[in-house]
């Protein structure tokens, strides 16, 4: 373990610069991902992440939290305990727990996601990064094969990773401009979540592509036309929609009992 102070008790300028550069660069580097909070750190570590940096303003507190929440995950080697001053410079907003890490992003592409065993969730141009991350968390918990995000939203944005509690490392997650032609990938049954569907969640195939649109606009016409069938989630009259992650959870968990 190290602290971000030199022998005289003052900040080590070189260490300050190195830590600040790693954190700043991770926010825009497509090969890195920023992990905020103990839950994101523990899941990333549990599912094999490689860390370039782990910092905390309270090493004893971080050690205690990991022992309580994840006894199988030790404090990563090389974790730095920073001064409160430097911590506030790196993390201007409040985190739920005292941990910040930079990890190497897995190199998943659309082919990796579509080739993954199990159901794959396809999100059609989601707008809210927090909802996107919550879908990744649900998909990992339900033992889905992967998550593919269509459109410009970055599923590895720090906001999405924070909402997923670092569970991006548990399954392939990638984005693409559009859903590839099925001729270019292994054929899978394509099921669209849609209010005009049949509502029979128990028949969702175990290798399905589950297409999910936004709360406001739903699926695009082009993507809806790709579906082999439509799946409806029954709702009380007068209720027009569900939160994105809630809808995905209902579809995945309604199709089969939770894993394990």
List descriptors.
260 residues, alpha/beta, six-stranded parallel sheet, five-stranded mixed sheet, 9 helices, 32% helix, elongated
The value of Rg in angstroms is 20 Å
Taken as a percent bin, the fraction of beta residues is 15-25%
Order of helices and strands: EHEHEHEHEHEHEHEEEHEH
The residue-averaged pLDDT reads: 88
Number of helices: 9
Q: Approximately how much helix is present in the residues? A: 25-40%
Low-confidence stretches: 5-10
Query: What is the SS-derived class?
Result: alpha/beta
Global morphology: elongated
Strand count, sense and barrel status of the largest sheet are: 6 strands, parallel
How many DSSP E strands?
11
Strand order of the largest sheet: 8-7-6-10-9-11
C-alpha end-to-end distance: 37 Å
Task: Provide structural commentary.
- 32% of the residues lie in helices and 17% in strands.
- The protein is built from nine helices and eleven strands.
- α7 (158-163) links the parallel β7 and β8 (173-176).
- α6 packs parallel to α9.
- The longest helix is centred in the first third of the chain and has 14 residues, at 13-26.
- It starts with a strand and ends in a 5-residue tail after the last helix.
- Mean pLDDT is 88; it is low at 5-10.
Secondary structure topology:
Elements: E1 2-3, H1 13-26, E2 32-36, H2 38-46, E3 51-56, H3 59-69, E4 80-81, H4 84-90, E5 100-104, H5 110-115, E6 120-124, H6 129-141, E7 146-150, H7 158-163, E8 173-176, E9 190-193, E10 209-212, H8 221-224, E11 229-231, H9 244-255
Parallel strand pairs: 1-4, 3-4, 6-7, 6-10, 7-8, 9-10, 9-11
Antiparallel strand pairs: 2-5, 3-5
């Amino acid at each position: 373990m190290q602290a971000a102070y030199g022998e005289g008790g003052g900040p080590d300028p070189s260490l300050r610069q190195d830590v600040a550069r790693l954190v700043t660069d991770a926010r825009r580097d497509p090969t890195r991902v920023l992990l905020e909070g103990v839950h994101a750190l523990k899941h990333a570590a549990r599912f094999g992440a490689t860390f370039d940096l782990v910092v905390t303003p309270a090493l004893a507190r971080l050690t205690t939290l990991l022992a309580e929440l994840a006894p199988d995950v030790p404090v990563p080697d090389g974790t730095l305990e920073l001064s409160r001053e430097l911590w506030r410079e790196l993390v201007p907003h409040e985190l739920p727990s005292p941990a910040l890490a930079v990890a190497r992003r897995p190199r998943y592409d659309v082919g990796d996601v579509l080739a993954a065993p199990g159901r794959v969730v396809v999100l059609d141009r989601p707008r809210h990064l927090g909802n996107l991350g919550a879908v990744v968390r649900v998909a990992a918990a339900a033992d889905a094969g992967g998550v593919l995000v269509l459109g410009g939203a970055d599923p590895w944005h720090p906001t999405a990773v924070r909402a997923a509690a670092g569970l991006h490392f548990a399954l392939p997650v990638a984005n693409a401009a559009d859903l590839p032609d099925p001729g270019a990938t292994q054929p899978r049954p394509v099921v669209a979540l849609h209010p005009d569907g049949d509502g029979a969640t128990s028949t969702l195939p175990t290798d399905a592509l589950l297409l999910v649109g936004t709360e406001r606009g739903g699926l695009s016409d082009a993507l809806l036309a790709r579906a082999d069938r439509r799946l409806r989630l029954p709702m009380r009259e007068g209720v027009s929609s569900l939160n994105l992650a809630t809808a995905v959870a209902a579809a995945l968990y309604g199709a089969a009992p939770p894993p394990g």
